[in-house]
Amino acid sequence: MNIEHIFGFKYRIPKEGKMRVDATFYASESILEDLKSEDYASLQQICNVATLPGVVEPALTMPDIHWGYGFPIGGVAAFDPEEEGVVSPGGVGFDINCGVRLLVAELSREEVDPYEGRMVQDPRKNRLADALYESVPSGVGKGRKDVGFGRKDLQGVLVDGAGALVERGYGEPEDLENIESNGRLPGADPEEVSDRAYERGVSQLGTLGSGNHFLEVQYIDEIYDEEATRAYGLSLGQVTVLIHSGSRGLGHQVCQDYVERCMEVAQKYDIELEDRQLAAAPIKSHEGGAYLKAMYAAANFAFANRQLITHFTRQAFASAGFRSKEHPLRVLYDLAHNNAKFEEHDGHEVLVHRKGATRAFGPGNKELPERYRPVGQPVLVPGDMGRYSFVLAGTEGAMSETFGSSAHGAGRKMGRRRAKKAAKGRNLRRELEDKGILIRAASKATIDEEMSEAYKDATEVVEATNGAGIGKKVARLRPLIVVKG
Amino acid sequence: MIRMLDHTADVGFEIRASSVEALFDVARLALLMTVFEEPPEEGKDEDSVRLSAPDLETLLVRWINELVFLIQGDRFVPVRADARIQETDEGSFSLEARLAGAPLEFDVYGWQGEIKSATFHGLDVTKEGEDWRAQVILDV
Fold this sequence. Notes:
The complex is a heterodimer. By secondary structure, chain A is an alpha+beta fold. In chain A, the strands form 4 sheets. In chain A, strands 7, 8, 9, 11, 15, 16, 18 and 19 form an 8-stranded mixed β-sheet that branches. Chain A is built from 16 helices and 19 strands. Chain A has a single domain (4-484), classed as Alpha-Beta Complex (tRNA-splicing ligase RtcB), CATH 3.90.1860. In chain B, strands 1, 2, 6, 7 and 8 form a 5-stranded antiparallel β-sheet that branches. In chain B, strands 3-5-4 form a 3-stranded antiparallel β-sheet, with helices on one face. Classes of the chains: A alpha+beta, B alpha+beta. Chains A and B meet through helix 8, helix 10, helix 13 and helix 15 of A and helix 2 of B.
């Protein structure tokens, strides 16, 4: 593979063979070593993306790049509908609109963790952990029994997203302005969502899911940028809650349905697929349009899902005795890291696919809430359950270099079986408790598979992102309580 | 034969059997081994599946995804499958299967986490000599 170092953290793979455009990637030396050790398999994937019709230069990967299905995780690619550009379900992912939401409490660490992690049996902290675990079902099959959504209600959710939940009393109107796209992608059509997708999703609204999804109570333990911190209303020691979840079985099914549909029509549209999971259809085709409408519907389900989880998180805090003077938990921001959206870049409207990558609009962008506009969009980068997560800000650099995109997390470096083997003989729950972190999980297997060592270090990703100028460090978050499926 | 693959981000398996129907049944078993620490072996409930696909690989993906739905959606764990796979005149494939199953019990069987989908990545169904072989990666 021909890799050119441009400068700093930026590298280029010049187009060759069937690539229509160059690929650009961002990496530190250590990340580059990781890429080399896998024979550049992930970079080959972005080169494959660069072969698709209508791709706008460059095809990109973020510093948290790792191998995915079709697109690499951390992949960003824009397509021009006027140049026969395509939409690819694999460029969005199975978990459509998976994303993270950060809530900010009017609480300090001392109020939630007065013993600073030194007392595992701290009753208040344990009460909060138990309340959160009870309030937010995490695994599959554990659908909510307290909230009933029939098919008709669900159709409304698929059209209106988070707003549909706020209308029903699950949240505040001001929540919506701090969600990307106000918690709703317009153009959704529930009719393009299959019956099977409805069946899979109907009982899962308000649930976390399993795998790397989580709900985490944290506190801000370091501030890097005073101006952005002030604009976001953050302060040192403040308690936060990070929610990572997506569109659950409904989104998974929509992706499944349309990957197959796009595979079927690839020949009809003369689309040569270097990888079947890159299956795509022209944006302006019937099939492309149908996928977009279904994808928006699934995306709205994900926004609504995080909204409902927020409602029950607020209830859990209240039931555990943490009642706020004004508002229990404020939505700082909610952003997605798996979707495709029409955006204007360099004067052209293009369809930007972000798969395991985050929108990161810079200062001045009118899509942002007014009080965030001077400093740029909050960008949330979760780490693993034993280490830090981060708040960054979108930058001008992201707008000019990466279609306004940034990193989304750290990614695994160890398979689940290997992680379980490595965990044998260890009590990971106790190890986390020794760090002052309480964990609530459905099983030991979940904790073992999600051990810190199974993940790359988010700090490394954030340093590369910051160094590359495509996300600016604002604050660091340290876990106190982790809830997993 | 089932060999579980240790995929970095997801899970997968490589399987072998003496016939294509047996291969699909081994895929069922491999799926149960992925999803449960100790999958059930007996069950009195019944269900059936009918699928078709343009090729065997797509058929295998659809089969696994159907079983995932039965487990995660209908809470029916397929402990036995009696499948018939036929090639049509047009070169596509159909599958009809009768299933025996047990109700899903998370704690009893040791639930290991949900499956999003079987994927087409690294997907392979081939005849090697007298045996059939397949490889599948699942997104979790």
